[in-house]
Amino acid sequence: MSEAVYPQSEVFHTEDMTISVGPQHPSTHGVLRFVVRTDGEVIGEAIPDVGYLHRSIEKIGEKCTYHGYVPYTDRADYLAAMFANQGFCMAAEKLAATEVTRRGEFCRVIACELNRIASHLISVGTFGQDIGAITPFLHALRERETINDLMEEICGARLTYNYIRIGGVGYDITQETCDKILTFLDHFDPIVDEYNRLLSYNKIYIERLANVAVITKEEAFQYNLVGPNLRASGIKWDIRRDIPYSVYPELDFEVPVGHGEKGTLGDCYDRYWVRMQELQESSKIVRQCLKMMPKGPAISKVPRKFKPPAGEVYVRVEAPRGDMGYYVVSDGSEYPYRVRIRTGSFTAMGIIDKLSRGIMVADLIALIASLDVDAPEIDR
Amino acid sequence: MNGFGGYIKNIVETVSTIFEGLAITLSHLVRRPMTIQYPDRIPKPVQETLPLRYRGILEVDLDICTGCLACERVCPISCITIGIDMNKETKQRTFGHFDIDICKCMYCGLCAEACPTGSIRHSQEFEGASYSPAGLVRHFVTRPVALYKPKKGGETDPTMVEKVKIGQEYLDEFATPEGGAGAGEG
Amino acid sequence: MQAFVDSLIQQGYFTGMPTQVVYAIAMIAAAFAVLSFFVAPLAGVTSWLERRVWARMQSRVGPNRVGPQGILQWLADGIKNLLKEDLIPAAADQLLFPLAPYIVFIGFLCTFVVIPFGSNLIVADLDIGILYLLAVTSIVVVGILMAGWSSNNKWSLLGGMRSAAQIVSYEIPAGLAVLSIIFLAGTMSTQGIIKNQGWAPWDWYLFNNPFTFIAFFLYFTAALAEGNRTPFDIPEAESELVAGYVTEYSGMRFLFFFFAEWGNLYVIGAVATILFLGGWQVPAVGDGLIEGVLQFVVFFLKAYLWVFVAMWVRATLPRVRVDQLMALCWKYMVPLSFLCVIGTAAWMVVFPHGNRWASVGMFVLGVVILLLFFGRVRYQIRHSKPELYLRPYI
Fold first, then answer.
1. Which residues contact C302 (CB under 8 A, 6 or more apart)?
2. The pLDDT value given to residue C368
3. Rounded average pLDDT over C257-265
4. Nearest CB to A26; choose among C161, C239, C322
5. How many CB atoms lie within 10 A of CB A35?
6. Residue C198 DSSP label
7. pLDDT digits (tens, 9 = 90+) for C131-147
8. What is the reported pLDDT for A219?
9. Which residues of chain A have pLDDT under 70?
10. What does the alpha-carbon distance between residue C263 and residue C250 come to, in Å, rounded to a whole number?
């Protein structure tokens, strides 16, 4: 539609508007910017402009000890700090061939999956808010608040956990906390159902999302989408299942994929719906872990001066925003030689320009929300 | 969605889902809110309801600090600065300064885990508002304090026993051998 | 109002003054009284109530600091906005930009001329009351378009254009829904329409026949769209257009738009009450003063119920897209409202004096729907219990 040719004259002529969406815009989730060329309501192109939240976390890694860098990784994606912790710790463990205790692995999975629930709650909540429904957002945050309370009991922090350490986890999960987690999960399942009836099945909501910004299987591959965005396009790819790490192979869980629930395969609604299903899957995983958790130490003996032998590793974890990769190079000293982080949000930015052509301004907001991009994770 | 059936189905779906949504929001109207307005207080201070592991603003009990500088070394952002003065005549070592910049601190808990006596620890305090950044630098040395020397057969000084016990309890919860990250010496 | 002034003139209170001057002074006094004693507190309290209702629906507390339960919050907000800098951007149109809020405000305030507060309490009982109402509310769109264009801001422009398209389109279903009532009442005077209904629910036009029942919901939906309320708040869509046509406004001018919006909610409810819900009709209680007060209370409560419903809808529903908004209007609401008009006309031919049984039947149907609804609410309360307190002290 943006390519339409209008009869031009001296007196009346139409021209495209260039609008800067962001960096201060209510629905760019942090400080993101899009340079949008529109013809009225219809978008010609939307070019993402990233870098407003760059904190050079990767460079800081070269100045920190391995133990000391773990709290920094929290800040890479503050909505899912646990996964960033885990990724880096797994990389360091692989470098030094450190064993992780079995209880430590279960503690990791419990904490991670709780964190995934919290992160997805934010994602679906802000999705509703971007579409204009304000109540679901606060209902989602209410549940997330309970998870934050749980996290506070597990590790003492609500957002930047620094829980997963090299060799295991920082603190053991006590039996009392396990009971509280179970109480929360029992309460959480009906809430997801209520949330669905309030927002997901709402006709206006479905109309807004179904058939909007469709990503086909091929496009999802070409643009290197990861995580829920990839699975929504119908590709069953989950690091937890396909490149197993930790104790995931022992756990029984489904990998939800998009089926074109209300519209086309790979539309905004599918991306939303995959996340809603992952909430329930994560809840299932946590329940299993609580049952299977063995006794024992939560962390193995790791020297305080952690000096892995020289070498390089690449480790991937399945974060809420998709495949999170850590590339760590060691030169045998106390400090990492290089640390690089590969995040899902950054690659998701690439496809926005292509999908935005010909959709409306309101759809662009839905598209950004559906990709669940997170500004700190994009820029790191 | 085609034809007259689709048309009617659209209307029915819209009306019924809106009906359902309205019922949910109304059901929340009659329930108690989950939040309280900030300056309002709950019966107990919030600090007392926080779990023991809560990582609030750092506090230091200088009486049991051995001056080993483990916290200063382990801190990833160097927000802890410790100066130790040596009295030439008596060979007594005292703290010149022990400052923690709360502005910089990222509450990672690494220092508390590294501490051998549980002297530096996270309090349950989190309300740290100040009028200037300088007000956020906590100075713990107000009078000359001698370095603590752990005694071989356990503490005997009655004034110190209590303090050592508090520190040890904190260490047990926060950095236990079977769960704490402080385990293992290298 | 006019009768009251006439009687004063006849009693010789204003001898020596031209009648027109007396009328003019009376009109200004009436406008002042309505604005300062009714509209301003009403819009203010509505703004507070909306925030409270939202908050409770979202498990929050909402403003509760100023006055008991925060009911004076609107005064604090008003004073704050009065004291703020009145900013006019350098690139904005220096004439239209300051003027736009007043146009919006006039469009909304003029409606109070024909909105009654009781059988005798009305500023002017115009014979073309409803037509006048539809006409003056259209002025609002001029103001919004002015605001959007003169701000010289792209977000404002988009908001203004959306608003113009939306309000103009939704005039049609709203007008058609009103038309079926005008058929039944045979008059356009607001007082006349109310007098044709009774105090009992089955005497209301809402339950007169199935078509007016549908027409009521069509009217309410269209009115929400005309009032730029969720799910049709696309002109100021916060998550898309930052703040739409009010992006560049600040201070009191900004407040005027929202003053009009919240006051407009009451107008929506009042018109729905006049047309469908029997207005101020109360059972006969004899005494003139008591009856007058009762009429005012009944009318106010009926109207305010719909203000509450509008807040409630806003807390529940997502926002529609601009093309879906148009599709909803032209594909669904316009044909349905035509159906209502034709249906009502046919009904009047079949039952020239109305059908009491049909009215009672419709009333029962309405009650059944309400009961079903409350059954659903009860189910929600039992089904999911967010009152899970890991720390049971709140």
1. C269, C273, C277, C278, C279
2. 92
3. 84
4. C239
5. 15
6. -
7. 888 888 888 888 888 88
8. 86
9. 1-11
10. 19
| Cα dihedral sign, C196-C198-C199-C200 | negative
Token pair in block for residue B165 = 């016990």
Per-residue pLDDT of A157-197, as tens digits, reads 888 888 888 888 888 888 888 888 888 888 888 888 888 88
Which parts of B65-104 are beta strand (E)? Answer: 80-86, 93-101
For residue B181, pLDDT over 50 is answered with no
- Contacts B27 to C, Cβ<8 Å: 377-378, 380-381
Quick: pLDDT tens for A221-243.
888 888 888 888 888 888 888 88
On the CB side of C323, how many CA atoms lie within 13 Å of its CA? 10
Q: Quick check: A303 contacting B, CB < 8 Å?
A: yes
Contact A297 B178 (CB under 8 A): yes
Q: Is B156 helix (H, G, I), strand (E, B) or coil?
A: coil
**What pLDDT is stored for residue B180 in this prediction?**
43
For A305, which of B13, B110, B186 is closest by C-beta distance? B186
How is domain A98-304+360-379 classified at the architecture level of CATH? Orthogonal Bundle (1.10)
Contacts for B75-81: CB closer than 8 Å, 24+ residues apart: B75/A68, B75/B110, B75/B111, B76/A64, B76/A65, B76/A68, B76/A69, B76/A71, B76/A72, B76/B106, B76/B108, B76/B110, B77/B104, B77/B105, B77/B106, B78/B104, B79/B103, B79/B104, B79/B105, B80/B111, B80/B120
Distance separating alpha carbons of residues C250 and A289, to the nearest angstrom: 54
Q: Is the separation of the CB atoms in A267 and A207 below 8 Å? A: no
Smallest Cα distance from B27 to chain C, Å = 5
> Looking at chain A, which subunits does it touch, using at least 3 CB pairs closer than 8 Å as the criterion?
B, C
Q: Does the structure show a pLDDT above 80 at C391?
A: no
Count of Cβ atoms closer than 10 Å to residue B78 Cβ: 10
Q: Residue A17 — φ and ψ, nearest 5°? A: -95, 140
Residue from the list B21, B25, B42 with its beta carbon closest to the beta carbon of C394: B42
Across the interface, whether the CB atoms of C393 and B19 are under 8 A apart is answered no
Asked whether A61 and A379 are in contact (CB, 8 A), the reply is: no
**How large is the ipTM?**
0.82
The structure's pTM equals 0.86
Q: In sequence order, which ranges of chain A are alpha helices (DSSP H)?
A: 57-60, 66-74, 81-96, 102-131, 135-155, 175-195, 203-209, 217-222, 228-232, 239-242, 268-292, 344-356, 361-371, 375-379
Structure tokens at C290: 């008591």
Q: In chain B, pLDDT over 70 holds for what percent of residues?
A: 90
Token readout for A219 is 């496009």
- Positive or negative torsion for Cα C43, C45, C49, C52: positive
Among the listed ranges A232-241, B11-20, B80-89, which one has the minimum average pLDDT value? B80-89
- Give the chain C residue nearest A39 (alpha carbons): C158
Q: At what angle do helices C334-350 and C210-226 cross, to 10 degrees?
A: 150
Which residues of chain C does A129 touch, with a Cβ-Cβ cutoff of 8 Å? 239
pLDDT in tens, B132-148: 888 888 888 877 777 77
Beta carbons of C307 and C269 less than 8 angstroms apart: yes
The pLDDT value recorded for residue B186 is 30
Helix intervals (H) in A261-343: 268-292
DSSP 8-state class, residue B146 = B
Residue C295 scores a pLDDT above 70: yes
> What is the residue extent of each domain of chain C?
1-77, 84-368
Hey, what are C128's tokens? Answer: 């073309």
Written as one string, the DSSP assignment of B4-46 is HHHHHHHHHHHHHHHHHHHHHHHHHHTSPPS---TT---SS-H
Q: Helix C154-185 crosses helix C334-350 at what angle (to 10 degrees)?
A: 10
Minimum-distance CB partner of C384 among A128, A134, A191: A191
Q: What was the pLDDT predicted at A8?
A: 59
- How much is the pLDDT for C89? 85
- Count contacts between A and B (CB, < 8 Å): 108
Inspect the interface and report whether the beta carbons of A194 and C383 lie closer than 8 Å. Answer: yes
Is the model's pLDDT at C95 over the cut of 80? yes
